Amino acid sequence: MQLVSMKEKLASYGQEHLLAHYDTLSQEQQAQLIKELEELDFDEVIEYFQRATSDLDSVGQKLDDKMNPLDDSQCGSIIKSTDEELIHYQNLSLAEIGAGHVGILLLAGGQGTRLGVSYPKGMYNVGLPSDKTLFQLQAERILKLERLAAQETGKSGKITWYIMTSASTVGPTQKFFKDNDYFGLSKENIIVFQQGTLPCFTFEGKIILGEKHKISRAPDGNGGLYRALRTEGVLEDMKKRGIKYIQLYCVDNILVRVGDPVFIGYCLSKGAECANKVVRKQFPTEAVGITCKVDDHYQVVEYSEITTKSAELSNKDGSLVYSAANICIHFFTLEFLERVVTTNERLLQHHVAKKKIPYVNEKGDLIKPSEPNGIKMEKFVFDVFRFAENFVVWECLRDEEFAPLKNAEGAKDCTPSYCRNAVLALHQKWLKMAGAEIISTSGDEAPLMTSPASEGNNNLDSNGKEVEEVVITEISPLVSYAGEGLEPLVSGKQFTTPLHLSC
Ligand code: UTP
Questions:
Q1: Dihedrals φ, ψ of 77, to 5°?
Q2: Residue 193: beta bridge partners?
Q3: For ligand 1, what atom is nearest to the CA of residue 108?
Q4: 251 in contact with ligand 1, CB cutoff 6 A
Q5: Among residues 46, 116, 361, 460, which is most buried (max CB within 10 A)?
Q6: Cα–Cα dist 404/414, whole Å
Q7: Quick check: 361 and 367 in contact, CB under 8 A?
Q8: Residue 117, by phi and psi: left (phi above 0), alpha (psi -120 to 50) or beta?
Q9: Confidence label for 503 from pLDDT (cuts 50, 70 and 90)
Q10: How would you class 329 by CB atoms within 10 Å of its CB: exposed for 0-12, middle for 13-18, buried for 19 or more?
Q11: What residues contact 54, with CB distance under 8 A and at least 6 apart?
């Protein structure tokens, strides 16, 4: 396209500033910028901006009058289930895994700004004795699950692991898996794909120039998944492989039971097409999203969207009415995903995140603002719940299944030490339940560590010092997926810390 007609096009969208520095660019940069502008669907992104920002007026509005809790019949729970039920759920899933019907979707396209490292979060090592990264822990849990399914069913069905990355995480993620020989999984069963990006806008609706020859872009949120499933051919791949059921999770949860057979089995037993695994809200004002019905649609409602009165509503037994806290672990049937991707994806609203976005000013200088100066538009992965007809939730225990890595050391929680201590506490509990005696370095029996995940504290004082004895016990996922199979190995035996039980 000629420069003149591009200028006219931009002017018609009120975006002519995007060519302000054109004359100062090298030929190569000029070509790059023109190509990017030609490829951008201005009608589409401006419509996204308008829809997303028109909603800003309603931010702060409460949803109380439209909300209802889920029916009891839709809510399963690990503590309320009998051992027989749990085994039944597990066996249902292992049979599907053995038959090769289960796929796993990992969301790993985030920028991890709060943690503040320059590489993808999955490559982070929180300092366990094994020095395993989040990616390795997750890979080994998948490997173990395949082995458990093979033992149980005699069929060695493979689990395909779909990893969603973004422009900034795709390269390092691919290299990391290759360099580590895919952590023992088959290379052909790990599919790394990339989510899309969207331009960043000023509050006034101008697309931001991140460099003189480049638009500033950000990943389109973890709900960008649904578009990427189509554009990256992932859905097609799932169909080709005969996958029927998918479990989704976020990269940062160090305790995540990847492909949890109990959760999946519960969903299968209910014939659900979509499900959310939740933890119980710890206190009424905890800032977590809760799962409920809004105007007859399933939804995750943010804490800021309900009044304290609703947040505090309790049942006869004292439990909170709205307590199903979202931890971003979902279940979908392939049929549901296909329906969402082909017919509902376009209806998903973008949410606005106000951010400090570096920009090139009129003089051509790169400015790093100290206050939010623009917006990124993001879709949320759980927004598809509203399209589900048969929806269930499964409540698990926080200290066993949820400890996300969000913040750098020094923050109140969700730091690397918080995650490491959550693993150590859980593994000590498993060892104790299996009949092991753990002796600490002082020669005495080690005290039972408190999990930072269950107590809401992170075992650190305000100076970042450990406030109680940290008992170093780690169990490789290849030895035990969720605490099973330990008794023959450890019962009646004494172990001295630091302990790393590996194959
Ligand atoms: P968060 O919202 O916690 O974002 O992502 P983040 O990138 O990890 O961290 P901050 O907010 O920049 O500090 C929750 C999950 O969603 C994924 C993340 O990788 C994480 O697993 N995610 C987020 C995506 O896959 N794509 C996105 O565009 C955003």
A1: -155, 140
A2: 164
A3: 19
A4: yes
A5: 460
A6: 6
A7: yes
A8: beta
A9: confident
A10: buried
A11: none
How many Å apart are CA 137 and CA 254, to the nearest integer?
A: 8
Q: Output the CA 155–ligand 1 centroid distance in Å.
A: 35
What percentage of residues in the chain have a pLDDT greater than 70? 96
Tell me the CA distances in angstroms from 310 to 66, 87, 279, 299, 359, one per residue in order. 11, 36, 18, 16, 42
**What tokens were used for 476?**
């490789």
Task: Give nearest CA residue, ligand 1 atom 23.
Answer: 110
- Residue closest by Cα to atom 22 of ligand 1: 110
- Which of 349, 59, 57, 49 lies closest to 202 in space, CA to CA? 49
Pocket test for ligand 1, best of 105, 225, 252, 379 (most atoms within 8 A of CB): 252
Quote the DSSP letter at residue 207: B
Q: How crowded is the C-beta side of 58, counted as CA atoms within 13 Å?
A: 10
Q: Is 415 left (phi over 0), alpha (psi -120 to 50) or beta?
A: beta
120-179 tens-digit pLDDT: 999 999 999 999 999 999 999 999 999 999 999 999 889 999 999 999 999 999 999 999
Domains of the chain in sequence order = 2-56 (no CATH), 57-401 (3.90.550.10), 416-501 (2.10.10.100)
* Nearest ligand 1 atom, CA 249: 21
164 lines ligand 1 (CB under 6 A): yes
* Greatest CA separation for the chain: 82
DSSP label at 391? E
The pair of three-digit structure tokens given for residue 292, joined into one six-digit string: 């409920």
> pLDDT confidence of 481, banded at 50, 70, 90?
very high
Q: Whose CA is nearest to atom 4 of ligand 1?
A: 110
For the whole prediction, is pTM greater than 0.85? yes
> Any bridge partners for residue 244, and if so which?
none
